[in-house]
């Protein structure tokens, strides 16, 4: 009789098209260990699924390395380093903008975590605290950390934020400066219309 493999510590099979990858670790199966290594290296199709989910043009690199370790008798901590190369559309020109990301990730899972009451509006000081789940999905943690680390307003080199650019798909973009002569012409037309007509 062959022993069955534990459900944790093993990456899943290739996900179905459009689905995000997972890397689950059952909390009960790793509770007695001093440390459990986490290594997330999504494949090309998996990175494409993540890119679509986050609105990226491309995700050439995504790596997450860390460890899950006990904290006290019942709590756990996941710490790791996230590195990625992301390609986003420029917020002004829509040109591809490549950004290198390197970030430290920490999640503290508490067995006795209590959600704030509905009338409590105070923001907790430590935003790394979460309830201890039955399954810790390291891939989900990495994808969430990547989403939080993405530049909010990626800009192509030399492009100033606030400069409007107008273009049809496949056409060269028109910037604010390109439109100024047309704005002046429109002003002259408006003045001509407002001017009183001369008697014949």
Tags for this model:
200 residues; alpha+beta; 5-stranded mixed β-sheet
Short description:
This protein is an alpha+beta fold and 200 residues long.
Mean pLDDT: 78
- Count of individual helical segments: 4
Strand residues, percent:
25-35%
Q: Supply Rg.
A: 26 Å
Q: How would you describe what is shown here?
A:
The chain is α+β, with helices and mostly antiparallel strands and 200 residues long. It has a domain at 24-159. It has helices at 27-30, 44-54, 138-149, 176-194, and strands spanning 24-26, 36-40, 58-71, 75-89, 96-110, 129-131, 135-137, 165-166, 174-175. The strands form 3 sheets. It has a 5-stranded mixed sheet, with helices on one face. A two-stranded antiparallel sheet has the order 1-7. It has a two-stranded antiparallel sheet with strand order 8-9. Strand 4 (75-89) and strand 5 (96-110) form a beta hairpin. The model is unreliable at 1-15 and 179-185 (pLDDT under 50).
Secondary structure topology:
Blueprint: E1 24-26, H1 27-30, E2 36-40, H2 44-54, E3 58-71, E4 75-89, E5 96-110, E6 129-131, E7 135-137, H3 138-149, E8 165-166, E9 174-175, H4 176-194
Parallel strand pairs: 5-6
Antiparallel strand pairs: 1-7, 2-3, 3-4, 4-5, 8-9
């Amino acid at each position: 009789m062959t022993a069955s493999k534990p459900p944790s510590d093993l990456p899943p099979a290739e996900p179905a098209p459009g689905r995000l990858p997972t890397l689950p670790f059952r909390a009960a199966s790793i509770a007695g260990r001093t440390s459990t290594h986490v290594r997330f290296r999504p494949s090309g199709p998996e990175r494409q699924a993540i890119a679509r989910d986050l609105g990226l043009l491309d995700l050439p690199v995504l790596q997450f390395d860390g460890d899950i370790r006990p904290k006290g008798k019942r709590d756990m901590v996941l710490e790791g380093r996230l590195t990625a190369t992301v390609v986003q559309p420029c917020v002004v020109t829509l040109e591809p903008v490549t950004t290198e990301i390197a970030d430290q990730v920490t999640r503290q899972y508490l067995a006795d975590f209590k959600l704030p009451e509905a009338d409590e509006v105070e923001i907790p000081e430590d935003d790394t605290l979460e309830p201890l789940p039955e399954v810790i999905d390291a891939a989900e943690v990495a994808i969430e950390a990547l989403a939080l680390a993405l530049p909010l307003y990626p800009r192509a080199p030399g492009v100033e934020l606030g400069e409007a650019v107008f273009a049809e798909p496949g056409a060269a973009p028109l910037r604010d400066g390109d439109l100024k002569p047309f704005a002046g012409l429109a002003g002259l037309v408006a003045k001509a219309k407002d001017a009183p007509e001369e008697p014949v």
